[in-house]
Amino acid sequence: MRPVTPLIAVDLIIRLAEDPHSIVLIERRNPPHGWALPGGFVDVGETLEAAAVREAREETCLEVRLEALLGCYSDPARDPRGHTVSAVYVAKGRGEPRAADDARNLRCVDARDTGLPLVFDHGTILADYLRWLKTGEGKKLGEDRMTGGSA
Amino acid sequence: MRPVTPLIAVDLIIRLAEDPHSIVLIERRNPPHGWALPGGFVDVGETLEAAAVREAREETCLEVRLEALLGCYSDPARDPRGHTVSAVYVAKGRGEPRAADDARNLRCVDARDTGLPLVFDHGTILADYLRWLKTGEGKKLGEDRMTGGSA
C-alpha cells in the first residue's frame, strides 16, 4: 500500500545583485493571494534541485544556480491548502526577471524590509535567510526536535 | 485539484558515543531487505523533526536530539518502491539501542566501514556524513542544480 505523506515543494531565495539583501518576490496568481518566494510543487521523477531550477525559470524567467539548502519547513499549518513540506534553496539568478506562469507580478525587494504582505511562512524563511547571511547557519531545528511522538 | 508529488520520508544518522563514527544501523524487516539508517515516512500533520524523533524511538528505542539537517536526497531512482524524498538528520541518541517495529536487527557500526550491505542511497549518505564531520558542509547540491527543466 502506498503511504500517504505531506506534499513536497521547493521555494527559492533568488539574489540578483552582489548585495545579497536584494531578492525576488512574486505576487501569486492563485490563492492564497499575496506575495511569496518563487517556488512550487515537485513533480514525481524530478529532483528537488531540478524542481527549483524549473520553478525559477517558469515564474521569474531567471536561470539560477543553487548555492545552499537553507532548510526544510514542515509545520502542518504553514500552508492553508494542506500539509506541504518546503525545501528552501538560496540561489543566484542570471537574466532579466519577469513575472510569468503562476506569477502575476514580480518585484526585487530588500529582504530586510520587503514592504509587502507575505503568504505562508515566507516571512519566517526570510528571517532565517538574514541570519544565514550573518552566521552561515540554516533554519534552526527548533522546538520540533523534542516533541516527536506526542501519542 | 490536489497535486501529486514524491513522497517525503526522514532518515537519521544516530551517534551514541562520543566517537561520531559510531552510528546505528537497522536490518529492514520489509523489502527492500538489507541494512539501512533508521527512518520512515512522514505522517500528514507531523513535522519532519517530529517524524525523525518518532521513527528513532519506534525502530531503535532511542530518544534522540536532532543536531543538523545533512541534506535532502531526491534522486527518483533512490528507492525502488517509488519516488521518495528523504530529509536526513544527524542526531545524538540516548538510551540502550534495541531493534523494534520495522527493524529486524540493529547494530552499532563504524560509519567509515560498516561491513554491511546498505540499501537505497544510504552508502552515499554515510559518505556525505563523513565529509560533514570533517568540513561542516552538508550534502552537495551536485549536478542536479544545472539540469532542471530538461524538457
UniProtKB/TrEMBL annotation, chains A, B:
SUPFAM superfamilies: Nudix. This is NUDIX hydrolase. It comes from Thioalkalivibrio sulfidiphilus (strain HL-EbGR7). Gene3D superfamilies: Nucleoside Triphosphate Pyrophosphohydrolase. Keywords: Hydrolase. InterPro entries: Nudix_hydrolase, NUDIX_hydrolase-like_dom_sf, NUDIX_hydrolase_dom. The keyword Hydrolase applies. Residues 6-134 form the Nudix hydrolase domain. GO terms for molecular function: hydrolase activity.
